[in-house]
Structure formats: C-alpha cells, structure tokens
Amino acid sequence: MTAGGTPTPDMTLALLREGLDRAIAASRARLEAAGRGAVPPDFELPGPSALPVLAARFNLLPEEVELVTLAAGVERDPEAGALDVATAAALWGPVTWDMLCPEAPLRRWRLVELTGTGPLHRRGLRLDERVLHFLLGTSYLDARLEGMVVRALPVPPEGARAGAFVEAIRAAWTGTPALPVLLLGGPDAAAKRGLAAAALDGLGVPLLRMAAGDIPEDWAQRAALAVFLDRELALSGSAVLIEAEDGQGASAARFADGLTGPTLLSATEPPVPERAPRRRLELAPPEAAERAALWQAALARDGSALPEEACQRLATQFALDPGGIGAAVARAGSAAPGELWHAARLEARSALDGLADRIDSSAGWDDLILPPEQTEMLRDLAEHLHNAWRVNGDWGWAARGARGLGVAALFAGPSGTGKTLAAEVIAGALGLDLYRIDLSQVVSKYIGETEKNLARIFGAAERSGAILLFDEADALFGKRSEVKDSHDRYANVEVSYLLQRMEAYRGLAVLTTNQRAALDRAFLRRLRYVLSFPFPDAAARAAIWARIFPAETPLDGLDPQALARLPVAGGAIRSIALNASYLAARGPGPVTMAHVERAARREYAKMEKPFTGAEQGVFR
C-alpha cells in the first residue's frame, strides 16, 4: 500500500460514476458468458474510474479488481442479484480461494466482506461501504474512526526555527521510495501538529491525528483499528500523526508498527518503533530572541509595537510558541505592556495547571514582618528575577550555557514564620503565578518515577515562567544517604537530578524547610539564595497583630502589644485572628479580646500546647 494525493484530481463525479458503471457492465457480460459455458472476453477498465487507483494503492490483481467491480454493481443496481463465493468461483475458478484468503488484500484491508454463515462457497460477498463511496468519488472519514481520528489544521510557520522544521518534514518525504516514520521530538505538541500539517499540506497530503491514549489495550481491537486507519490513509491519501504523552510511548510505538501508511509519532521524547526506515526531527522551543521577534510581528499585524525592553522581558519570561503569542496579543486587546504581561501569564499557565496547585494571593511587601536583613534579601531576589532578561540575554551569560542561570532559593524556619507568604509577595511583585508542588505526588517508591515527575513539572514551568514552591521540602531535599543498597543509590540519583534541573531552570524555585540542619551541605552550595526566617520576637508579633485584621473587620479594644505576649508565629496569629472573626460574626459585632482568647485557646489545643497562666494573663 502506498500514499498519494487525491484519488481522482481531474475527474468529475459524473465521469467517475459513468466509468464505474461501464466496468460493472463489462464484468456482468463476462459473468453471463461464463454461465453459458462460453469463453468470457478479457476484462478491461473502460473509461476513467477510481478502480485503477484502488488497485494501485492496495496492490490488487486484475481478478481482485473485477470482484470489487461486481460487488459494486450489487450496490449500484437494486435489481441485481446477490454476489456469492460460488458465483465468483464460476468465473475465476481456483484462484477465487486465493483472492478470498484472510491475508489477501481483499480481506486483509476489509475491501470485501463475507456475509452469512456456513460453508465458504455458500457465503455472500459484499463491498465495504467506505470503499463503495471511494469508487463513487465521495470523500469522508470512515465512521469507525469518528471521535478517535480528526483532521489536523495547518499552521503557517513563523520564524526560522519553525520554517526549518517544516522543510525538514517535506525533505524527509520527498524523493524517497519508502517513506520513513517521522519521530517528532520537542515539548510543544500543538506547534508540532500545526507545522507538520503545514508541511504535508504543501505536499498535497492531508494530516489526520489521534491521541495515543485512545489506542485500545485489547490486542484484537487494536489490530482492527490499525487496519481501518491504515485503509483510510490509503483511500484518502492522508498521513497520520500519533500524539503520545508521558507514559504512552510504548503503546504508540506498538501501534505504529501495525501501520504501513505514512506515519508520524509526536512526543517530548518520541518512542522508537521497530518499523523502518525512521527519522527523528526535533522542534526545539524558540529562543528568547526569536520569541521577541514573534511578539513584535504579532503586534505589528494589529498596527502596534512594544518598547524593546518590555518585549525582551515578555519573551524571556514566557516561553510561548507563535500560536500562544498571537493568542496573548488578542487577549490583551492593546499594546500596553501591563496588559500584554497579564495576557501572556494567563496564556502560559495552562501548562502547569494540571501538575501543581496555583496559589492566588494579593499579599504585598507591607504584609511581611521580617527583620530588615531578610526583607532586603527578598527584595534583592525579586530584582534578580526582574533583571534576568538583561543579564542572561543582553549581557551574554545565557550564551555560555544554561547551567547555573536558574534562581533557586531556600526559605528555612519554623512553621508559620512567613516562608510561603514571602513567595506570594515575590510572585505578586513580579506579576507571576506561584505554584505549590505537592511532594506526595512527586516522590515515588518506584525507581525512575520521581525523575519523570520532576521532569514534567520543570518542563511545564519553563513555558509558564511561574515560581515553583516546594513546600516542606525536607522529604525530597534531605541529606543524600550513604549508599548501602540499590534504593540508597537511586535516592541519591533523584537528588542529583533535581539539582541539575534547578540549576537549568530559568525561573525561581523556592524550597521551604523547617529543618535546615537536615539539608546536605553540597545541596546548599547549589542554591543561589538561602534565607532564614526567625521566630518573630515580641515587637514583630505586635506588628503582625496590628496588621493581621483587614480594614473592613470591626474591632473593639484589641491591644496588639498585649497580644504580642502570646508566643506564636505569624501563621498561628492569622489562624487565631480569622477564627476570632468568625466567632464575633455570630453576634454580629466587633472582634473583641474575648473572641481572640477563645480562638487562641483552640489554636493552642490544635498545636497541643498548654494555655498557661502567662497566656491567660494576656486577656486579663
């Protein structure tokens, strides 16, 4: 079976059907002559029809083409008698059994179906409906593939990287007797799909696509799907793109091995099928300079432009493809840098939304109550990220390699001292999303799975430009153990892999821990910023109490200086203040010291701490 363009480019439907009807008449004349015992005339295909195309694409013998013709006649003429195996045998003799072997083309590609039950010579023959419509010049997707296979729409290439990818696909399938399976690598599945469709569109080959997750597990169903899809590729002159997500590579490769038509496999790291020949093509994400040019080009189409510095910051922070950039420009509705930044942030966040929890916060610098040294370091960290585009790009550091350009920060301190709040403040100051990583979903007891989970997270984060928060990260970032068995060795591999990804990640990864002493010193040396969050002293606690209630909350007689005598951290103060507000709302009335005392007693009970006379004295 071979690929090709449209089956009848120069034929009208009327000519096609007229040619088919003449072929049917000629076959019936041969059949009648055989029935009379006369020598049948030779079968020839009079006039234009789709029968020669069908024969070429499925390697049919003349006798097989004629059997298809007779079966089409049954469908075309309501008064025609049924076609059965015995009738066919009367015309072709013993060769009939070879034509109807399950592995012969007619049965292998389900062009002709056997009907009825009983001995083979008593069974009927029927032309498949999709094949009949092909002969009649009607093009449509086989109903058995509906919902599983769809047409991929071409996306014109923008930029040198996309243009080179399109040309590489065309070159791979031009002037080659056997079309290689194309393995499309790279993280951007949508871009690969659109560019592959554009490349094949230039060759006159439509592109169908399917998700590897829809491939049946049952071998019989999988084999049947492969036959119908392969047949559809031949009938429509199409190619198929199988898109595999993480963990689906093996299934996609097995399915590709069952096809013979033009096939492309798409995955971040494409699986390698046994089918040959094959060729790998990589669509690397566009670099910041190319993204900047794409931003300006998208704005120029709307008659707008963006200052160079604002454009460079956008291009560096958000690794959007041309489609994402165009969508962001449309979403923004103007060329205002702030609007474009927000639109790019919304467009890019989808990559991480299914892998981590997004934290929405309106916290600002005034909400942080920390010693001046820690506050200054946090502001330095925010400025570091704000100016990364200039240092890494304009000043040439990125050209020396990605290692070490990432910004990894460790926030260490007791629970409730403001570590997560500090990450929220930095994200808000920079206009970036903050995602909390659930370590219980990352760390796996199975060897190699933790690295795969981390790779998915960091890969998605690269596109979104978000800040990653590994909260309570002790479980993953603890001391690398002395190697005593295979599990120890692979635990060390996990930590080493994490260090590598953190150093290469161009955004900010914030790690929080309650036990800094438990961290490996070698690990600490790979971190750009290490901040200690101390337990707040009385002055800091008074400042927290003075700011913890929103301005809209009615208060009566609260004394921040007195409340500061409660030796609790900021997180506990917030919990007490919130619970006191709910207690007061029953009144309804203002929050009083009595409400705070009741809430404090409950917080102490939760922390399993005694509410001693010193604490009681705060409220007397």
UniProtKB/TrEMBL annotation:
Keyword ATP-binding recorded: yes
Lineage: superkingdom: Bacteria
Keywords, ordered alphabetically: ATP-binding, Nucleotide-binding
All residue ranges annotated as the AAA+ ATPase domain in the record: 405-533
Molecular functions (GO terms): ATP binding; ATP hydrolysis activity
Record Gene3D superfamilies: P-loop containing nucleotide triphosphate hydrolases (3.40.50.300)
Keyword check for Nucleotide-binding: yes
PANTHER family xref list: AAA+ ATPASE DOMAIN-CONTAINING PROTEIN (PTHR46411:SF3), FAMILY ATPASE, PUTATIVE-RELATED (PTHR46411)
Protein name (Swiss-Prot/TrEMBL): ATP-binding protein
Source organism of this protein record: Alloyangia sp. H15
